[in-house]
Amino acid sequence: MKRILILCMIGFCFSQDTKLITSSSLTLKPDDKSSLGKLNAGTNVRKLKLDPSGNYVKIAFEAYVPVSVLENATVSLPVGSTQSADGVKFKLISARQKGKQVFVKVQVTNTNSKKFN
Predict the structure, then answer these.
(1) Contact yes or no for 72/57 (Cβ under 8 A)
(2) Which helix (H) or strand (E) covers residue 106, if one does?
(3) Is 24 exposed, middle or buried (0-12, 13-18, 19+ CB in 10 A)?
(4) Among positive and negative, which fits the CA dihedral 90, 92, 93, 94?
(5) Which residues contact 56 (CB under 8 A, 6 or more apart)?
(6) Residue 52: other Cβ atoms inside 10 A
(7) pLDDT surpassing 80 at residue 93
(8) Which is deepest, 28, 55, 59, 89, by most CB within 10 Å?
(9) Of 76, 87, 91, which Cα lies nearest the Cα of 111?
(10) Bridge partners (DSSP) listed for residue 90
């Protein structure tokens, strides 16, 4: 019995990524009549959870949109990444959250020949 349970758990963990076999509309809630858009057959998705009715699966997928359609096109980068702005290089050393506060360590380097404040 334990072996079957372990095999089922391993199968569940490794079978989360799948492809759509037919086109489908996207909705915010199960059995919602309003559509957000449509996913075509062959789109890769990740299954997150089954809704209580068993008729819908909550999924996640990766998609790209042009920068020009966004109100704010800045992107949060992971710790260790570097960005430059106006001749100043910023590197995020560490970030940790404690309650509602976030503590950040940033390394700032002047890449211009002029001083900055």
Answers:
(1) no
(2) strand 101-110
(3) middle
(4) positive
(5) 30, 31, 50
(6) 8
(7) yes
(8) 59
(9) 87
(10) 83, 108
114 confidence band (pLDDT: 50, 70, 90): confident
Work out the average pLDDT over 67-78: 78
CB 116 within 8 A of CB 87: yes
**Where do we find the tokens 């211009």?**
112
Predicted confidence at residue 60, as pLDDT, reads: 86
- Give the pLDDT of residue 45: 87
* Domains along the sequence of the chain with CATH: 14-66 (2.30.30), 77-110 (no CATH)
Q: Which residue has the higher pLDDT, 9 or 58?
A: 58
**Any idea what the Cα angle at residue 85 is, between residues 102 and 88, rounded to 5°?**
85
Contacts (Cβ under 8 Å, ≥6 apart) of 72: none
Overall residue count recorded for the chain in this entry: 117
